[in-house]
Description:
The chain is an alpha+beta fold. It is built from 15 helices and 17 strands. 27% of the residues are buried. It is found in: Membrane.
Amino acid sequence: MRSRGYLAFIVGICVTVATCGFVVMTQHQQVQANFQRDADKVAHDTEVRLQTYFDVLLAIKGMYALDQDIDRLRFHRFVAELKLDRRYPGFQAIQFVRAVPQARLAPFVAAVKGDTSIDAGGYPGFLVHPANLRDPHFIIEYTEPLKGNENAFGLDLSALPPHLKALELGRDTGEIVATERITLVQDATGEPGFVARAPVYRGGVPLQTVEQRRDALVGFVAIVFRVSTLMREVIDSPLLEHLHVRIDDDGYFDAKAAQASNADMLLYNSAGVAGVREPLDGLVSQKALLVGQRRWLMRFEGYGGGRYGRSPLPVLLIGVAGFIISALFGALLVSNRRVVDAKHGLEYSLAELERQKANVEQARSDLAVVVETLKQAQTNLLTSEKMASLGALVAGVAHELNTPIGNSLLTASALSDMVRDFERRLAEEGGLKRSVLEAHLHDARKACDIMNSSLTRAADLITSFKQVAVDQASGQRRRFKLDEVVHDTLATYAAQLRRSGCEVRVDVPPGLEFDSYPGSLSQVLSNLIGNALLHGFDGRGHGAIAVEALRENADTVKLTFSDNGAGMTAGTLHKVFDPFFTTKLGQGGSGLGMNIVYNIVTGVLRGTIRVDSSPGAGTTVTLVLPMQAPQEPVPQEA
């Protein structure tokens, strides 16, 4: 019996060591998964942001394709309509670079000095710099905004080898080409930057060969970036406390092999030269991005801490508990020797008791595993529900954008046909009547107005969607106006509401300013709209939703969301906040929508929620929210 006690103690210790090793391995895998997810998100967000900026560059190139005689005033007005400080904060400047042959250099300089379209005094101090004899010259003619970028005005890029190489490659390929790492002449900080340019050719000439493209070149439209400013718009600053990001320029993508990393290649270093810490074992990753025919290498390193930390407490607790249980169990078996010698009649009862105890321990362990599995499943379902909501936003905005963009494309095609017909008639008749010219100008102006209205509508929709999507994805606290969040959220659901024949009425005063979490509030409104469409208006051809807000006192606001849908029975109303409870199981309902709403309202926003409903009379959800949320919200369980 004594040997059995020792054997049980050794086996218990072995099981404890194995369990501790399994917990350590699981923690390591979870940390690596979190790090890889963060690295993939930063790389993807960088690629998407650069593609958005390059799309703007192509839009400017398209303006020149319609009319190559764009003067300084029209270029200034076009850039002003882009609202760079609000929509594209990563830009340093937008420029037009003109290709000027040596023989036309003097008339070109005189024309720029005498240009009074914006400044009545012209630009008498305009100077092409640095002086060189290369032909042709590539001179920065327009730069917006001019304030802060005066040093770039008149810069001859043909005298600067890094710029000249990129210009010649863009001219010969017809594609957007980025420069290598450069120091911007208009940036006194000396931080790394780069310029992306797209070539502009004369219209109506063939561009199939390199020689044809060289002969047809007019100039380049360009966007100037400072990499640190660009990355501040991509990476959340709290993430940089745990994740080190470094970007190196590895040269043009057709290079034979990657270059060794050095200071001349460095575009961005999130921690600075002296702030880089030693990464955790295994938390190192690298991704390559293609940016304007250049290859960027993004290197990621994870630091130890709260986000990628590995807590020793669970391992310590398991080890101590396992040792104590093994010692007690072994001591129990050893002490049973005396009991067996004294009372043989109790041997069977004690053995049976030990077996029952082992069964209970096993059952408890199995139950703990089941509970942990259920908690993980609930967490995954909560995440899926939120991502499904964001996916619905994307689908709705994409559907809503089809109309204005389609109108713009149709109008642009019609305008192109009108211009070709106008050119044909001018060539055939040798001259046109004033009435024909006025009619053509009227039609062209009307087409431009249609495209401007449609594209403005699309830009406003995208701005609303970006604000709602960023707020829901980041969950950051900021100051916001309640009516703007309500209208932005409803705008992203405009397509779904219109397809459902749902009428929306909003009565939210414009002066209600919150210091809270707009993403969480938008998530609540999204779930309530989804519930109304899925449950309240199921089987109905039309319906109505009302969103109203009323200031109760100096610190709180009552927000009411109501619909005239099918309503709920008393039994359904009693369980409406229970997780996994749904009347649409297997039909699109997960049972977590109202549970998420309850947790967000009471845990994050620190407010209260009440639901009133009866069959056939619709549903009313009343939220009482503080205008200034507590500093550290703690999520609660429903």
